[in-house]
Specification:
The chain contains two helices and nine strands, in the order αββββββββαβ. About 20% of the residues lie in helices and about 45% in strands. Strand 2 and strand 3 form a beta hairpin. The chain has one domain. The strands form two sheets. Strands 1, 4, 6, 7 and 8 form a five-stranded antiparallel sheet that branches. It is elongated and about 50 Å long. The protein has about 160 residues and is α+β, with helices and mostly antiparallel strands.
């Protein structure tokens, strides 16, 4: 009788142990797919960049790979779907042909990286413009501050 009671007690304790175990966590769903957009504009409403400038842009694509587009004119944008979280980054360098420079020059751009939510783009554009009243002043300023020909923008989503 002792053996039967002992076996019965082990079965009862064992059943509590089995039923008391936590169920396996459900498999996590894949990351949410969204669109992001890189955007560089030639105007901010008050300034329009002089058409003599071209831009080389390097950005991170949906796979996080670096892509470069050269000799583009503004405005420019690139939109694609990514897996979140995503680190977006773009860099650019303006170029120009000195013989094509007008007497009055506006250099700069509005740029931003944004995400689409429910089909609507949410983006904060950052402006940076400089106006030069002479070609000579522009060339002297660029010689002293070549960083004015560069842009960079990055954002984590």
């Amino acid at each position: 009788m002792k053996k039967v009671t002992y076996l019965l007690a082990i079965l009862i304790i064992g059943s509590f142990m089995v039923t008391g175990c936590k169920k396996a966590e459900p498999t996590p769903t894949p990351e949410k797919i969204e669109k992001i957009e890189y955007k560089i504009s030639n105007t901010d409403g008050n300034h329009t960049i002089s058409p003599c400038f071209k831009l080389d842009v390097t950005y991170l694509d949906a796979n996080g790979q670096s892509v470069t587009e050269t000799n583009i004119t503004l405005p420019w944008s690139k939109t694609f779907e990514v897996n979140f979280p995503f680190h977006a980054k773009m860099e650019g360098t303006f170029s120009y042909n000195e013989t094509e420079l007008p007497e009055e020059i506006v250099l700069g751009c509005s740029r931003g990286i944004g995400a689409y939510t429910n089909g609507t783009l949410h983006i904060e554009m950052n402006d940076k413009y400089s106006s030069f009243h002479s070609k000579e002043r522009f060339l002297n300023t660029i010689a002293e501050h070549p960083e004015l020909l560069k842009l960079t923008e990055e954002k984590d989503f």
